[in-house]
Amino acid sequence: MKRTTIGTTTLGLLVGVVAGAGIMLNDTAHDSVKQAIGQGATNNAVVAGVGGITPVNVSNMDLETAMQAVQANRAAALENQLKDQMDSIKKRNEDIAGLNDTLAKVMALQSGNAPYTLAADLKTKLQQAGASNASKATLTADELKTTITEIKGKIDSLNNTQQMDMLRMQSLTNKRNEAFETMTNFIEKMKANRDKAIGTMR
Questions:
Q1: Do you find a cis peptide bond into 55, omega within 30 degrees of 0?
Q2: Which of 187, 189, 180 is nearest to 24 (CA)?
Q3: pLDDT at position 132
Q4: Which phi and psi (to 5°) does residue 139 adopt?
Q5: pLDDT per residue as tens digits for the range 151-192
Q6: Residue 114 · residue 141 · CB < 8 Å
Q7: Angle between the 120-129 and 141-201 helix axes, to the nearest 10 degrees?
Q8: Cα angle 84, 85, 86; round to 5
Q9: Buried/exposed 56-95: b ≥16 CB within 10 Å, e otherwise
Q10: N or C end: fewer C-beta atoms under 10 angstroms in the chain?
């Protein structure tokens, strides 16, 4: 059998086992592998890097090593996505805390009488928050109420986004755990098969 045919057959087996065993590849990655097969993949085939997955060169790999590399790559990609999501949540928490601090200072002005004078640091915070009256030195009673409503609206919007972020983080955590569990089970299964083969040969 020619080298090219062997490479194509091996990669074909790899994709088939990956799909059948339920390895943690997303649909896009799976489609890319199928496309590579359809284009006449050879011994130099590379599993395309899509969906945050780094390209994996499966040339000169046996079937087990190639499968393990694909699974390890998927697990690492999910780990990186989870880290990015956690960083995003941390940043949003900081933004919410800053807006809550600004809101408290704005509401504290209500204890006085209109017009309400804005301190320099408070004006800066309102400008950062995008408040419509942030450029003014003093606010009327109505303008103060408008500013309070705007800040509350921004906080509510960030809280809603934060809830979606938390759901995404939970989903990524579950997928990451499943990917590592699949990889661990695969390694253990391959070891058991090799031990069995060695035992048969004795």
A1: no
A2: 180
A3: 93
A4: -125, 145
A5: 999 999 999 999 999 999 999 999 988 888 888 887 888 788
A6: yes
A7: 60
A8: 90
A9: bebeebeebebbbebbbbbbbbbeebbeebeeebeebeeb
A10: C
pLDDT the model gives residue 101: 96
Q: Quick one: tokens of 4?
A: 């090219």
pLDDT of residue 9: 40
Residue range 61-76, pLDDT digits in tens? 667 777 777 878 888 8
pTM recorded for the entire structure:
0.61
What secondary structure, in 3-state letters, does the chain show? CCHHHHHHHHHHHHHHHHHHHCCCCCHHHHHHHHHHHHCCCCCCCEECCCCCCCCEECCCCCHHHHHHHHHHHHHHHHHHHHHHHHHHHHHHHHHHHHHHHHHHHHHHHHHCCCCEECCHHHHHHHHHHCCCCCCCCEECHHHHHHHHHHHHHHHHHHHHHHHHHHHHHHHHHHHHHHHHHHHHHHHHHHHHHHHHHHHHHC
8 near 42, Cβ under 8 Å? yes
Tokens of residue 116, six digits: 């309400």
